[in-house]
C-alpha cells in the first residue's frame, strides 16, 4: 500500500503531465474547476483546483470529501500511482469501477479525451 506522500507525489506528476500535454488533452485540462481526489484505502482526500492546465492541491483532509467538488475522483492509492506511472489504463479502471469519476455532463464530455 502506498503512502500519503506517494499519492501527493503522483498528483504532482499528473499535474506536470497535464501541463506538458498538447492537443485534445491540453484542451480538456484547460478547465477551471474545483477538484477532490479521495484515496479510499488511506481514507484521505486531496482537494484543490484544476486550473490553467494544472492540478493545484490546496488541502488534505481525513475521510471523504467534506464539500462536493465540481470534479470528484475516488480510488485506492495504489491505483492512483499505477495510473500516473502508466501501468493502469484510466478508461479500463473507470469502466470496471476501480476508479470513480463524477462531474457535470459537459465536464465529462471534455474530460473524455483524457481517457
Strand portion: 25-35%
Shape, principal axes of CA atoms: globular
Quaternary structure annotation: single chain
Given helix and strand content, the structural type is: alpha+beta
| N-C termini distance | 25 Å
The residue fraction in helices comes out at 25-40%
Question: What is the number of helical segments per DSSP (H or I, 4+ residues)?
Answer: 5
Low-confidence parts: none
Helix-strand pattern? HHEEEEHHEH
Q: Report the biggest beta sheet as strand number plus sense, adding barrel if it closes.
A: 5 strands, mixed
How large, in whole angstroms, is the Cα Rg?
Answer: 13 Å
Give me the side-by-side strand order of the main sheet.
3-2-1-4-5
Describe this structure in words.
By secondary structure, the protein is of the alpha+beta class. It contains 5 helices and 5 strands; from the N terminus they run ααββββααβα. The protein has a 5-stranded mixed β-sheet with strand order 3-2-1-4-5. α1 (about 5-20) runs parallel beside α3 (about 75-85). The longest helix has 16 residues, at about 5-20.
In short:
By secondary structure, the protein is of the alpha+beta class. It contains 5 helices and 5 strands.
Structure keywords:
globular, 115 residues
Topology:
Blueprint: H1 4-19, H2 23-28, E1 33-39, E2 44-51, E3 54-62, E4 71-75, H3 77-84, H4 90-95, E5 100-103, H5 105-111
Helix pairs in contact: 1-3
Amino acid at each position: 500500500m502506498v503512502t500519503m506522500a506517494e499519492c501527493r507525489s503522483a498528483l504532482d506528476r499528473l499535474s506536470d503531465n497535464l501541463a506538458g500535454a498538447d492537443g485534445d488533452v491540453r484542451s480538456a485540462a484547460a478547465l477551471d474547476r474545483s477538484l477532490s481526489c479521495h484515496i479510499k484505502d488511506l481514507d484521505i482526500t486531496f482537494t484543490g483546483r484544476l486550473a490553467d492546465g494544472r492540478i493545484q492541491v490546496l488541502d488534505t483532509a481525513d475521510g471523504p470529501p467534506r464539500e462536493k467538488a465540481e470534479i470528484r475522483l475516488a480510488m485506492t492509492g495504489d491505483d492512483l500511482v499505477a495510473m500516473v506511472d502508466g501501468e493502469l489504463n484510466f478508461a479500463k479502471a473507470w469502466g470496471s469501477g476501480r476508479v470513480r469519476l463524477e462531474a457535470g455532463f459537459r465536464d465529462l464530455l471534455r474530460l473524455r479525451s483524457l481517457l
